[in-house]
Structure formats: C-alpha cells, structure tokens
Design goal:
The complex is a heterodimer of chains A (about 280) and B (about 400). In chain A, about 50% of the residues lie in helices and about 15% in strands. With about 280 residues, chain A is of the alpha/beta class. In chain A, helix 10 runs parallel beside helix 12. Chain B is of the alpha/beta class. Chain B has a six-stranded mixed β-sheet, sandwiched between helices. The chains are: A alpha/beta (about 280), B alpha/beta (about 400).
Amino acid sequence: MSRSRIEQRFAALKAEGRAGFVAYVMAGDPDAATALKILQGLPAAGADLIELGFPFSDPMAEGPPIQRAAQRALAGGMTLTGTLALARKFRDGDQTTPLILMGYMNLVLHRGIEAFARDAAAAGVDGLIVVDCPPEEAGPLADALDAADVSLIRLATPTSDDARLKVVVKRTSGFVYYVSVAGVTGVKEADETAVAPAVARVRKASGMPVAVGFGIKTPERAAAIARVADAVVVGSALVDEVAEAVDMNEDVTRRVLLKAESLAKAVRAARIGQTTV
Amino acid sequence: MTPQTRPNDYTAYPDAEGRFGDYGGRYVPETLMPLVHELDAAYRAAKADAAFQAELAGYLKHYVGRPSPLYFAERLTAHFGGAKVYLKREELNHTGAHKINNCMGQILLAMRMGKTRIIAETGAGQHGVATATVCARFGLPCIVYMGEVDVERQKPNVFRMNLLGAEVRPVTSGSATLKDAMNEALRDWVTNVEDTYYLIGSAAGPHPYPEMVRDFQAVIGQESRAQILEMEGRLPDAVVACVGGGSNAIGLFHPFLNDEAVQLIGVEASGHGLGTDKHAAAINGGRPGVLHGNKTYLLQDPEGQITEAHSISAGLDYPGIGPEHAWLHDVGRAKYLTATDQEALAAFQLCAELEGIIPALESAHALARLPEICAEVGKDGIVVLNLSGRGDKDVATVAASLGLEI
C-alpha cells in the first residue's frame, strides 16, 4: 500500500501535466499539537506530498532555519516515537497523501533498523530519507525497509557524476530527491538552468520521478523549478514561517499554511501554457 | 552491541569500506561522498609514494623537530614505586603537541590534491593552531571553526591562530562547542566542494580520516617502539595515553597492536564523575551510534540525541571517540580507564613538581592513572606514557580551579 501511495501520486501528477509540491515540516515544531494541525492542513493547502523531519541534535546537512526548527522541536520534547505518533494521527485522517520521514541515521540506529521500518510502516509512513546514510552504509536499512514496504529515497547531488548516479539510484524507490545546490538546506539559491539538465540525467539513470529541493524559498523559484522537475520541495521557507509566527506571537498554523498555499499555487500554475516538459 | 571477532592481524584494519569491525564507515551526506572517495584515492596514492613519504619525513624532522625524545621519568617512577615510567615527549614538538604530525601530513596531501582553501574544527584550539601553522608555512588560506563557548575560554589560542593568519569563525549553533564546530566545518565542506580541503584533527570522521590521521600519528608509536628497544632492550609492558577523539592514543598504540604482550591503555575524561552527566567518556559512559561521518561510541540521551561532553580539558571535551578505539575496546585489545577533572589537576601538578614538565591537562588524564598501572605492571615492568602536549595553554584554567588568580 505505502509504496503505491507515492507511485499513485506521481502518476496522477503526470496525468495532470504538472509538478508536485512537496512540503517539508519539522515534527514537533514548535510543539506536537501545532505540528499536527499543520500536517493535517497541508493537503488542503496544496501539498501533494509531505516530508516530515524528525529532529536530531546534530543536523550536519541543514542550514540555520532547519537547525533552529530541530532545536525548537527538541526543546518541546519531540522524539522519534513522538514523530511516528504524529504520522499515525495524520494518516488516520488522510489515506492518500504520501508521507516521507526525513532525518539522521543515529536515531534510526538507536531505535533499531528493523523496529524502525516496522513502526514507520505501521504509522502509515511511505518513505524515508536519511541524510547521512549513503548507499555504502544503507544495505541493512534497505533490506528492512523493503520488508516493510517503505521506500528508501536517495539523494542525487551536483557532485554525482554518471558513475555515482548508478550507485545512488540502485535500490531507491518512489522517487529520487535531487539536491539542487552543493550546500546545506536553505542557504544557496537553486538555478533552474543548472537544475534542468541534472534532472534529466537523474530521470534517465533512475527511470523514476525526480523531486528537487534545497534552496527553493519563494513562489517564483518554486515555479521556475516546477517547469523542469517532477516535484518541488520547500522546507526552510516553511519552518521560517514557524519561527516568525512564534516571534510575533501570531497563529503558527495559519502562517505556515498560507505560505504553503502560495508555494503550491505557484507550482500548480508553473506549466500552464507550456506544451512540453 | 554486535559481537566482534578478534583478528589475527590488527593492522589490517580498516577494510576497504573503512570499517573497524562494526565501527567507522562513511556516514556523510551524498554531496560529500564523491569527495571522500576522491580523498581516499589520493591518500592511497600518497601513502604508496616514496617521494611523498620522504617529503613528509623531511618536514617532520626539520620543522616539527622529530624525533621527540623518550625520557625516563626517574622521580615519577620513584614516586609511584612500581614500573619504570617513560614519557614520550610529544609536547616538545613545534606548536607544543602531537597535533602537528597529522597537520603536516594532511597539508602536503591537500596541496598534492590541488586544494586551495583549508578548513578545520577545533575545541581547545590546539588542532586549530597546528592547522593555522601549516597553512601559514605553505601559504594557504585557513578557516577554523570553533564553538563560541570555546572561543571564550581559549582566548590565547584564538589570538595565536589570528597571528598565524587564520580566520577563526565562532560557532553558535547547538551547544557551541567542538561537536558543533565539526558540524559547521562539514557544512562548509558540503558548500565549497570544489576548492576546499577539510583537515580533521582527530582519528574520527568519515573514512579515510580515521585511518589517515592514525597513520600520520603512528610516528609516535614507531619512534617509541624503536626508542624503548634501544634503551631497555625490550618492549614495554604497557603504553598509556589520554583519549578524547583519540588521535594521540591511536598513534601510540598502532605500532604495538600486534605485540599482544604490550597492554594498550587509554584514559577517558570522566569530568565530574561517570555517575554524573558531566563527563566525556564515550566508551565508559556512552553507546554505539553515528555522528560526524562514523559509527562509534557516543554520549547520547535515552532518545538517541547527542549530549554535551564535559571535561576540564577542552581537548577531551568531545562526545565521541575514534572508531578504531571503539573496535579495540570491543575486541578486548585495548582497555579504557577514566580520570576525573580533580585527578587530572592533581597529576598536572605532580608532573610539574617532580619532573619539571608542565603537561597539557589532556595528558594529565593519562598521568592520573599511573599509580594503578605502575603498581599492576610491577617493579620490573616498563610503562610508556604519551605526554601529548604541554600545559602552558592550561595554566589559567588550572589556577582558576585552584582558586588562584594570575
């Protein structure tokens, strides 16, 4: 069921002739109850897929916005168990939107690879991205996720040459996540003229849809990437809304969902009038 | 814990994937994977290149001041009343610690790879100073990431790095200490993949760093082994070193790994005590996990979040340990003891008073376990202890701990 949820969503996007909008939010940011409300509101705001971060103390691939989101979530007591509970509650109310967990290896190992795969599947999670687990270290994890029918989603990057791409896409499923800039999340800006050929290369190597993320912050950038990719991931810009709403004492859920809506709208409109992708 | 097999040849590790048993590996973001593979290939070529080795040996001799003496510590020996104590005098190296051995090796490798920008992390500032030193010597720009907390408590070293032309970037993320400085250095590396060389100071990080740093530090053990054979006509009964990330210890241990009669003893910093949450003893008080590119013992909370380490010695103030130590511990080849802040302070003063040598607080942790080790080895035995650094940098910390003002 879970893998097919991702496949069905990308098939539907293809039929509609548009790119998908992937919203990244951090579990427990700023607290568990608000994070759940955000999750539950995202599909209606236009999120086609959702990435849910599980907070780690040492997120080495994240820029300041997601680092701070993780710290807020940890300060609020969020755990991996808490993240899985959030996923379960989200899934109880939404049977179709793919939900992908994203985080770091230590927490997965800490729970136990098999237990993690089982619990994620039971919580209605469809895929997993582990930022610091390259293919060389992923064998046992890939086995466990296969057994639980959860997709292991791999990252391709600007440093991946053709030989490396072959390694990266082996045993990946669902889609491939193309990291559009060499860098951490939310700092450099993605450039669609460089992204377009890279996406084509990754698509060819993998035969799978390609979602593009890192460095997409505005509706304009999201639309530009949506013209060349199968899906556009936005994370830092959404968690920054949490930070600002908390600072300004505003309604966090409302701010995040409004931002998500504007991004989703831009992604959906990006290819109107275009004949080919 | 995964059961680990005791090998026939300890020096055959890591394997091609960078694993020491279950430990080590390359847990880095995909963007860095091509770079760590490139580094691995470049290191292997350099290691096999006699010209590279000769160049390194030349700088170690004429710039670093090697070989460092192996010195019979007569008064410490008499004081403990057991085994003969020899001190490997790494504190006499240029920049005052063992750190320069590795920095010299890596800077030559970086230049060989055509890299033009050097980054490093530092805790106490010793590795930062050593990195800034070799960058000055070879005219390369140097950026050192240092936790804001450490910048504050190690001001003289910050000034030294600045004098040497390095830019020190204070790190405010996370707990603003060494582990966060390492996160920030990794973030820099992932952002500047074309021109940047990450010069890691500890025998930790993604493969090939633990192996490479060990190899560059193994000069400590190679010299010690030859020197003790010359002075005593036999191998020592035990070799002892302090362990934070563990680069000085693995450098001392490695040439003795297959001499199974030689006990290998590492001493971790237990800060306020192992029973408290203020220590830095990854093996004695942590469990296996993944951080900074390798699988090893780490200080973690019950949820698997990395916790802050504490030690009076900033150089041991790290929540992990190099993966080869984790493996040597599991297979039983090395044992890991602990020393508290107070024990290290006492040993610091004792060494100064009896031998006229002010040791680094890091090295004082190893000195602190000498009473038991010398007693256990016995009067006819020989113990070699790595005096990994000098303590000038620590006098303010020690004075403050003794309630004195200087």
